[in-house]
Amino acid sequence: MIVWVNGxxxxxxxxxxxxxxxxxxxxxxxxxxxxxxxLRRLLPMDRMTPVSEYQDLPSWRRLVxxxxxxxxxxxxxxxxxxxxxxxxxxxxxxxxxxxxRGLAVHHFVLxxxxxxxxxxxxAREECPGDPAASSRLREWCLEHLSQYRHARRWxxxxxxxVDTSELDAVxxxxxxxxxxxxxxxxxxxxxxxxxxxxxxxAAVLLFDAADRVLLVDPVYKPAWEFxxxxxxxxEAPTDAAQREVAEELGLRxxxxxxxxxxxxxxxxxxxxxxxxxxxxxxxxLSEAALGALRLPAEELRGWRLVTLEExxxxxxxxxxxxxxxxxxxxxxxxxxxxxxxxxxxxGQL
Length: 349
What we know:
Structural class: alpha/beta
Strand order of the largest sheet: 8-6-10-9-12-13
Distance between the termini: 49 Å
Shape: elongated
CATH superfamily of the largest domain: P-loop containing nucleotide triphosphate hydrolases
Number of domains: 2
Helix content: 40-55%
CATH class of the largest domain: Alpha Beta
CATH architecture of the largest domain: 3-Layer(aba) Sandwich
Number of helices: 13
Order of helices and strands: EHEHHHEHEHHHEHEEEHEEHEHHEE
């Protein structure tokens, strides 16, 4: 189990977590900053120079769940993690990777009143004996308050906010321990770990009257997706497409409504599985059908109708190329075969 204690820089996360490990038997304190410090020693200077925060390194976001999982093989747990995490896409990536390893994540945010937070930051002495360094760090924390203010909107939906305006580190830890025990802050992320090999997945493109395509926002990965998922063992791809649309959107599609547009071979990249990705045309949805869509909160955060140009800001490059090819196929009637999102062959539908 992971107890992730989030909050603005200077909110007192580390102090509270040091007290919390004393209250949770078998627990261990894991500060992901140590992963960043290791990367700073290992990566070449030209890679680290433009990076102001460790979190912007893909290797940091990949290693944190790996290290957490490895540490939990050494101790009974839980793992207590004091770490500011203000980008929702980074949260999705890291927490999704933890869920894929079967780790339950309890997500807390220390949330004192902003005036109190400012007072605490200004009173901190981070670098004893070096007043100039302490002053720079205090200024840095204060400058990042606006980021926390902006992130608080999604954090309020995702985590358990704990008002620590009147609490010291010990009282905060006691409150967190109570909430851990009753499971209040557990993130309901569902991520299958049944297979480690390549997979076949079926996606369904659904359109509105203006031919905008529907995308969904998973809670366990940083980028948007098409409705759909992995084809289960012994399951036909078209059956998987129908099942996934029903599970994710509450929408029932007939087999006759599905038309195959594109087949894309996706290479394995790091921990992400590769395999064949089938893209179907699921047809247009009426305003009534769109209004009746129902998403599972443990998997999807929301949905959006977009043009291809708007999708460019939401989809990874290979997935965007897959969408573009599928839209071409929809217009031309010619099936597209792709490899890594790049056109490789054309057939007749």
